[in-house]
Amino acid sequence: MFELRIHGRGGQGVVTAAEIFSISAFVEGRNAQAFPSFGSERMGAPVVSFCRIADREIRLREPVMEPDALIIQDITLLHQVDVFDGLKKDGYILLNTGRSFEELGLSELAGSSSPERLCTLSATEIALKHIGRPIPNVPLIAGFAALSGLVRLESVIKAISEKFSGKVADGNIAAATEAYNRIKARALEVTTDA
């Protein structure tokens, strides 16, 4: 079973991100579940959502305490919440920023992990460009699909089409495609440099 934990703030689409990723896995014939955890339901409050993917029935219902991967939608949480708590050794990390792990003061983390599993993506910038709103969830999910290889871009697009319609769907599909392609290009650079 693969477990993903997504950290962000209210209004950034954290819950929708987990739903879209689980639908993407379901489209590919796998079992999936997605659920949120939040205290107050106000804009800007820290929010966490979880997603599990497996090839068999998922019976667990508790929060993901030892994730295989983390997506951090808002890097201001890096200094407010222990977002890396429980992350499995050599887990995936995708941060919504254009800055490097070193620039964020995460050199130790970057030095102890496989570089092909750590990535940053300016997802808010991509969302503004294609959707016109600073909601980074869909670009991050598509970027994570590219980073992890767990689901295909086509499955993410199908999930977006099930969740949204019209211009909102079109913008999110464009954002997802750009994010996916950016991460794939970066992965190629990392492999070439190694």
UniProtKB/TrEMBL annotation:
Xref: InterPro entries: Oxidoreductase_gamma_subunit, PorC_KorC, Pyrv/ketoisovalerate_OxRed_cat, Pyrv_flavodox_OxRed_cen
Annotated Pyruvate/ketoisovalerate oxidoreductase catalytic domain residues: 10-180
Record keywords: Oxidoreductase
Domain of life: Bacteria
GO molecular function: oxidoreductase activity, acting on the aldehyde or oxo group of donors, iron-sulfur protein as acceptor
Magnesium in keyword set: no
The keyword Disulfide bond is assigned to this record: no
Protein name: 2-oxoacid:acceptor oxidoreductase family protein
Organism: Ferrovum myxofaciens
Lineage: Bacteria, Pseudomonadati, Pseudomonadota, Betaproteobacteria, Ferrovales
